[in-house]
Design brief:
The complex is a heterodimer of chains A (444) and B (185). Chain A has 444 residues and is mainly alpha-helical. Chain A has 15 helices and no strands. Chain A has one domain: Formate dehydrogenase/DMSO reductase fold, CATH 1.20.1630. The chains are: A mainly alpha (444), B alpha+beta (185).
Amino acid sequence: MSEKNLTGRYHRITGEVVSIPPHFPAPVAWAVLFGISMLLVGLLVVSVVVLLIKGPGIWGNNIPVGWGFPISNYIWWLGIGHAGTLISAMLLLMQENWRNSLNRFAEAMTLFAVTCGGLYPVLHLGRPWFFYWMAPYPSTMGVWPQFRSPLTWDFFAVLTYLIVSICFWYIGIVPDLAAARDRAAKRRWQVFFGIFALGWRGSGRHWVRWRQAYVITAAIAVPLVVSVHSEISMLFAAGPIPGWNSTLFPPYFVLGAAFSGFAIVTMLAVMVRSLLGLKDLVNDRHLDMLGRMTLATGLLTGFGYVAEVFTALYAGSYEYQTLIDRFTGPYWWSFWGAVFFNFVPLQLLWWRKVRVAAIPAFLIGLSVAVGMWMERYMLLVTSLYRDWLESSVNLFHATFWDWSLYLGFIGFFMAAFLLFVRFLPVISQFEIKEALEEGEKSAG
Amino acid sequence: MKRGRSPLAEREPAFLVAEFAEPKPMLEAAKTLREEGWRVELHSPFPVKGMKEALGFTDRTVPHAFLVGGIVGAVAGFGIQAYANWAYPLDVGGRPLIAVPAFMLIVFEVMVLCSVLTGIATMFAKNHLPRLHYPLFDAARFHLASDNRFFVSLALDGCDEGKARAALDRQGPASVEKVGGELPE
């Protein structure tokens, strides 16, 4: 008899998820948010056009702080992206069913964050239209990339990560697009979902092959995440710069990435469920688990801070001087800000009540996003601004165009995410059904 | 090449589609019918445990494609780095041109990329997707295959329709319907 209820529940879940695009529950709120995002996208376009015309001189970058905002923001964005893959792939492999309500939009977040992140180093090139010079292709110049440099590794790592994330997300969404196609009443929705569902018909042999491909991709995606952010930390750690040249960096960066990503996923989960009224599908349990993940990765990142200080004290001389610069130099606010925003509100997540409360969870997520941004900024700027030659000391100050580009990318991210929420199934309904079926079997 | 019927239409047999309310009877029906020698396929809104066994599915092309793609990618990733360093030698402080440890990250990334692209492309190719229309879509209730109903289809492929229908009926489906087969002149 419970099985009868189960098929009824399946039907409700299908309806709840795939009816969102044709019958959007919050058109006004969506339009307002999308309008704001598009204004910021406008700012992005202006910032990029000005950059292309005038060059990177419009930014605060100087010698010795040649990287500035573009690279610290690049790392921030990419770090955010990693949590989407980890939630989706790692929890799939561990058969943690609570992932099913989160994985779809967490992966979408990954795609958009990686796109924002990936564009930053391209814009930072000075002549972005030559970005393809980083690819190894037989050019008439006879020149090849320098494969022994982390800058070239970066190109491969980010491109691979972006493509693999798109594939993983897309094969995951195909069955849901088919469900949406089968429910669509209006011609334009039928055509839209029909094309992107690729003719999926839920055939048993298809499901078996699909499952093989999905699980193997997940198993590959987890080490891929680790490799990508470790590689990004090599941009720093492979250089002989005090404060960077440390074996701590790869795990420290990967954990910090997961930390900031879980924080953003929490924010998006709160937003998605209140905007779309999905309180049964994204429930307290999901916020609770996200809170725990944020807390755990946050504490591990905190350990990274302690280990970094220890390394500097143990090494002495230049490392020690950089540490003092971080504590008390002109950028002290970025160090102490990172410590405060990352770790102080985080402690509230020890209480379940806070983890499951939407607004506090959202605010803690925001605090972590700010804190991790300060951390990336601090790591980059404090190690670079003061070298040990008088001629190599120069303060970095972000300009209007630094901020406008950053805000513009935030707008782009929001706009892309809102479009995703508006037009595609935001929750993996077939995996929720599958988990219910499995639960029924093990219970009975 | 001019023929009365398009090659596509010749390939498609007619189908009998039986609907079940729950996954378990669908699996049992598929298993029995397959053992009786029918060409069986099942359709469900989500992957049901036991599908593989019910269909007698043993194909491991997709996992192998991932493996082969990965190996080819790793070799290609190393090869291009080695080749580029020979073709355009950059001597940095006398360090070795073929710096194996420094090459490994790109080897890994290219391996992952080729493996995933090959594996997923193989999955789609073996499933004969994308294919936007399929005869079964004409069945009246087949849209529920992505909602909460479970279907077993038999390809008639020259078999006797009456016998096939009787075999399906023995499995106690909610309904049986015939689709495809008749071509407009």
